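Try it yourself: sequence plus magnesium ion, in.
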Amino acid sequence: MTDRNAMETAPILKITDLRKSFGSIHALRGVDFELRRGEIHALAGENGAGKSTLMNIIDGILKPDSGEILFDGQPVEITSPAMAQKLGVGFVHQEIALCPDVTVAENIFMAATNMSKRFLMDYAALERKAGEILRQLGDVNPAALVRDLPISQQQLVEIAKALTLDCRVLILDEPTAALTDREAQTLFAIMRRLAAQGISIIYISHRMAEIFDNCDRVSVFRDGQYIVTRNVSETTPSEIVNSMVGRVLDNLYPDKQREEDRSEEVILSVRDLTERSLFRNISFDLKAGEILGFAGLIGAGRSEIAKGICHLEGETTGEIHLNGRRLDLKDYQDSIAEGIVYLSEDRKGSGIFLEMSIAANISAISLDQVSRGGIINERREAQFAERAGRSLNLKYGHTANAVSTLSGGNQQKVALAKLLSVNPRVIFLDEPTRGVDVGAKAEIHAILRQLAREGVGVLVISSELPELIGVCDRVLVISEGEISGEVTGDAMTEENIMHLASISQPRMEAV
Amino acid sequence: MAEGAMAGMQGQGAAPREPADYMKRLFKMRETGLILIILALFIAMSFASPYFLTWVNMRAMAMAFAVEGIVVVGMTILLISGGIDLSVGSVTALAMVIAGLLFLNGVDPWTASAISILCCAGIGAFMGFFVTKVGLHHFIVSLAVMVIARGACLLGTGGRPLGLYTLPPEFKFVGQGAVGVIPIVIIIFVVVVLAFDFMLRKTTAFRKVFYTGSNEKAAAYSGIRTKRVIFLTTTLCSTLCGVAGIIYMARFGSAQPTFGIGMELNVIAAAVIGGASLSGGSGTIFGAILGAILLSVVSSSLALLDVSVYWQDIIRGSILLAAVSIDHYLNKRRGR
Amino acid sequence: MAEGAMAGMQGQGAAPREPADYMKRLFKMRETGLILIILALFIAMSFASPYFLTWVNMRAMAMAFAVEGIVVVGMTILLISGGIDLSVGSVTALAMVIAGLLFLNGVDPWTASAISILCCAGIGAFMGFFVTKVGLHHFIVSLAVMVIARGACLLGTGGRPLGLYTLPPEFKFVGQGAVGVIPIVIIIFVVVVLAFDFMLRKTTAFRKVFYTGSNEKAAAYSGIRTKRVIFLTTTLCSTLCGVAGIIYMARFGSAQPTFGIGMELNVIAAAVIGGASLSGGSGTIFGAILGAILLSVVSSSLALLDVSVYWQDIIRGSILLAAVSIDHYLNKRRGR
Amino acid sequence: SAQDGFKCEEGETYIMNVMVSAHPYWVPVYQGFKQAAEAMGCETVFSGTPDYDITKQIASFEQDLVKQPAGILLHPMQSDPFIEPINRAIDSGVEVVTFAADSPKSNRTAYITSDNVAEAKFAAEEIVKQVGEEGQYAVLENPGQSNHDLRVTELISYMEQNYPGMKLVGRQATNQDSNAAYRATASILQANPELDAMWIPEAGSAEGAVAAVLEAEADVLIMHADVTPTTLEHIKAGNIHMALNPNQGVQGFMGFVTVFMAAHSDMFDPFNDYKVSGYNPMQIPFIDNGFAVITKENADSFDLNKYMEGRDPS
Ligand SMILES: Nc1ncnc2c1ncn2[C@@H]1O[C@H](COP(=O)(O)OP(=O)(O)OP(=O)(O)O)[C@@H](O)[C@H]1O
Ligand SMILES: Nc1ncnc2c1ncn2[C@@H]1O[C@H](COP(=O)(O)OP(=O)(O)OP(=O)(O)O)[C@@H](O)[C@H]1O
Ligand SMILES: [Mg+2]
Ligand SMILES: [Mg+2]
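Structure, out:
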């Protein structure tokens, strides 16, 4: 009886002295970790601290160099995701890993189909069940091909996929990085429900508010080492940040626009920009010295508007003026030539060259800065990368290493460094701090403010409302492809923005 | 073929809802463009030549691609899983040679065929080993095996075709006989195509092939043993080459060490024309067979029209290019 | 070649730090495995045959792959950009045929060669158009062009080789002459290889080829006109085929419409053995040339040892498989 | 009937069917075929497959049958696979004669070819005549193609039996590829500096072999079968000693005559059992069309491009 009792109170997962290195990089240097039954346990740590590596080991994707894993009190050696699945581990990966050529429903039930003893597929049932799960999370068509979905919807599919598993431990590695507040809240409700059913959840996030609102305990990692575990109720965000970063971060957001920076000079002016199915009648001015934000729900069309202005995708009509001069852009190269650049929200798909070196990634858009007469100076290129990396607190081994060896947040920094390395006149940043840790985030925000001060037009798209409110001087809210409102100053509150974001627009004529 | 005609949509995982929009779906599916192009060719040819729409000509055209069509099935499945196989031609020839040598040494032809097909499966497994365990690329492994298997054919036969005229009639019947007017070869072909088309669309086991080819990592994360899937599709493709080789042997009553040179390009082209992606994850058997039919009809038509040989290649290549361009255009217009 | 030897690392965009770790880097670079394998072959062969390490044999071996090596350069660059070209053999033959016909019709051979190379560039541009504007896959476009170009060779010559014995000696000198003991062909080859190796590693223009092949979308989002890059690499590959064809013509004093059948597999194999990825984004000229050397040395060695023809293919394929496996193993051990 | 003589009826058509149909070998054969047909007022068609693919050739042969020609002169890519199609053709009233390659177990009425064995013997004797009975020789080959195989294997066994002093020191497969032949010959020359002679069963490899021999400045007697403009020039220049070329014109001409005769067998009433046994009276197991010996002196007569000037290839 006591044995049994001990079993039930014993942690579901207990990890001792786990080590893992990649060549000379020590990702984990003797980590301890304990997960209780039915708790929501947050993991915090800077980019590259080793969080994903630890999760990948629990899921059997990576093999640890040494250390012990007790699952349900039993020592286990998890050698493959299939085995982890059998143990009851579900995993939402930081990097979205879906099959682009098959439907959402098939993706969601891939593991179930794999384990099922059924001989035939029942597509109708799959779609029905996928529809049920997706309805809780957000609006995704279960019959759509994953390749046709924007990254935020793919994120929802990835979450739905894990929820179908009959798991005892659910790992969520930055699931909200590309989600807006509304979808995130739904996810938290589901998490709490699962926890109440006795499922243990590991939740990785760089957003302190999420951790403190939803989790029971939080463990902090730094440089591959376990630092501390605290009950959320007994600690504060600044204490956690302090143990993560090793110093106190006093102000997370830079100062807003100063009075002397205020100017009526319009840098970018957009008039009646319309794309037949994605957005219409978009008109706004971006003024010198300000940081403008785009807010909205998933699928509102924020990214599409930015890409439309840069002529990256879609056929648009309307006018774009830069410093009062009407532009006649044909493609993105024209846009770059005018100094208008865009940072993609889809890091892996269109932000970085995974198998190329960090240096080559950072100089991709500004080769002329590291070359003379068309000949690349490799030393200069490496220095260029080092400089860019330093300013974003990039954690890497060598600039010649492939970007694929970096942690997710550090990959994001590379994508950002690439874009910041040009000297733009207008810069669109789509989820610029996706997956970036608090320290680096603050530095990125400071850089953006600095750019704005220097007269660069800065436009930020973010799904994280606190970020928009903290960084931007003015926020335009997009709903269903149209601007539904604008907030500035004290009116910039989450309530106001959410209200505007959920205004339903009269249906667009389908073309 | 009506069964097969639904391959496109269902291969994509859609489920039929109302019978009413059946026509709409037919128009929307991936293969419609190819079907239209082939139909157009048929109509043009039946005006151009009075011999085209004869039973004998149709039979000759069907016989010309039926056996290769079995290899196309294997290649398509392998392509979907993300692989490729350049050795299909040599392995098909080797199947003939192995079975032929065994038969000439007194083994009963059915047993000889079974052994030979097993050997081909072994070759596939060999390639699968190098791809999944050693970690080499399909292209280079199958290129090496293409050379080795051709060498084995030459070694086994001294470069001379084996005359197997003495094969028993009931064995030759497989390759030369007919049920009513329908040749056995074509029946086998249709059965293989329908069976694999069905399995690929409907069975959970073959869906894993799509998942693996579409994103091997994602499939592995879902617990699919992707290496095993790739190993098996590689083995399957070679096994089907073995089957094709045996049928050729029964049909020709001989085993030719030089058979099938250049077959790989033809077979891959058929699959690609039919919508298979060279990077894996998509493709249908039905489409690939349409691709094979298109290639075959063009060749046969040029021969039937007595087009000068010096012009045939130019016309053949141009039609191929035009056909895939039109098909691509039609697919794009219908909505990617 | 020491210059070229650094291709591996620097192609990846690395910067040398201290001259001290030069040896370490040499050991670490992608091509070391291949170099070791080729060295091992050389050592084994010099024991097996007293004729192997003679100047004349080395010269003959070099002559045997030098011209094809020029095509390997084009193919490698195309592969890096994410493309592939099956038409290289036919286009090389067509270059001979076009130049040969012009010459026989009274055009000065230099002008004829220039026109012919331009035509090949045109063919490359034609393929580039279908790939970038129409949106077809390189594989299928180049397959069609392979057939068309072969057809054009046949049409132009009536299938008969053109005798170009009357080519002026100063033209034939390009293919048959030597500066001192070094044949012109080898000089051209080395210059082409060094030039493109340098450009690929060092110039911004060619760096865009890597970006495009590594992740086309990310490249487009970095302001690279990826379609133009692909168009140009496709054109370049065909242009180099043209150059190779002209050199062959000067060398053999004839234009053979059937020249280069199957060349594509050889050329792609060389690039892949040398580390080029079939999915684009990686590869080096230096590695690809080592791959070509490996293939060529194996063939030459088998001939030198007078291995039975019936065994040659088996041995050749097995050595190929063993070599890439060892190379892969060495790279894996050194890496991660 | 006999009084109509050697004349076709209106529209009577004969087809010549080959594989790898763009190969120049067929060109003079078809010219012979056509000249005979014109002399008798018959129509001809050149058909077959451009590919080296037996399924395609069989398909094209069966498509020929759809047109109901009077007869087909066929070069079967392989013998046994054509047994059934040939027999079916004859049953449906289309006569078949084979040329250059045979399908002996079929019911074809005649077979016309060059005697590859005779060519090989001739080549062997010529080599011995030039370099003596003691020496070294090498061959290039093309395994899998029967006439090329015969030319090589027969020469080797003839040498073994009659001139044991001649040693075979090199034997390489080059498959009609001049670059492969260059490579192989260069290696053979390296390994055997004393090499006296080479026998090459086709002209494509000969082009590469000559280049290698010239480059090595070796003194090697080269003989080959078939001919291309380039090897002709080499013969004229003395780089190649001699080429043996099958008499393609006669092959085509006699091929036509035999297939015509098979279709008009009612002209002929031989002294045998054909009436009771029911076979075609025009049975000819083997006609040798002979071969020409090409040397410096007569080389100009073998320029196919010159021959084809003003002629229609199809
Ligand atoms: N495949 C790999 N090869 C080499 N190094 C790697 C590899 N994967 C991870 N690393 C390194 O291991 C360390 C830990 O990375 P990990 O992905 O676990 O960080 P993380 O805590 O998840 O960071 P983030 O918050 O940015 O996602 C980093 O220094 C990273 O560069
Ligand atoms: N081929 C399939 N077609 C439809 N749904 C499937 C398929 N394979 C698995 N599923 C779904 O995945 C889950 C697990 O499947 P599994 O076959 O293991 O369980 P099951 O007990 O047979 O499912 P059910 O409760 O529907 O009978 C179930 O929800 C099942 O409906
Ligand atoms: Mg991470
Ligand atoms: Mg977005």
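One thing you can check immediately is this: Chain C touches chain B through 48 residues (CB under 8 Å).
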